[in-house]
Write a structure and sequence with these properties.
With 122 residues, the protein is mostly beta strands. Helices cover 5% and strands 48% of the residues. The strands form two sheets. Strands 2, 4, 5, 6, 9, 10 and 11 form a seven-stranded mixed beta sheet that branches. Strands 1-3-8-7 form a four-stranded antiparallel beta sheet, with no helix packed on it. It starts with a strand and ends with a strand.
Length: 122
């Protein structure tokens, strides 16, 4: 079991910002690619972003590109998702995930956090 613990969700007005955090073990950060996914009410869970284990290259869904930034602090063993210019369409439960390789697809991620709710009001 690889515990991933998200935090930072909440209620924000449209146009606002939030920063999500995901705490993990040092081993997790050294081995696995880390990613964010989200699931809106009544919809399937979808890819948001991932960051490569080596080199730190980042990849984003088109819906969040230029508004969201994924990053990680290896000293603190924490993954972040900085979300700017939020809209009601960003309302979802956001999940942190860890997998053996970076991908847009969920099956490549073996470990998942419990999720944190983000609600954007209009």
């Amino acid at each position: 079991q690889v515990p991933l613990v998200e935090s930072g969700g909440g209620l924000v007005q449209a146009g606002g910002s939030l920063r999500l955090s995901c705490a993990a073990s040092e081993r997790t950060f050294n081995i696995y690619t880390m990613a964010w996914f989200r699931q809106a009410p009544g919809k399937e869970r979808e890819f948001v972003a991932f960051i490569a284990t080596v080199g730190g290259s980042t990849y984003y869904a088109d819906t969040v590109k230029d508004r969201f930034t994924i990053s990680k602090n290896n000293t603190k063993n924490t993954l972040y998702l900085q979300m700017n210019s939020l809209s009601p369409e960003d309302t979802a439960v956001y999940y942190c995930a860890a997998g053996a390789r970076g991908s847009y697809h969920q099956p490549f991620y073996r470990y998942w956090g419990q999720g944190t709710q983000v609600t954007v009001s209009s």
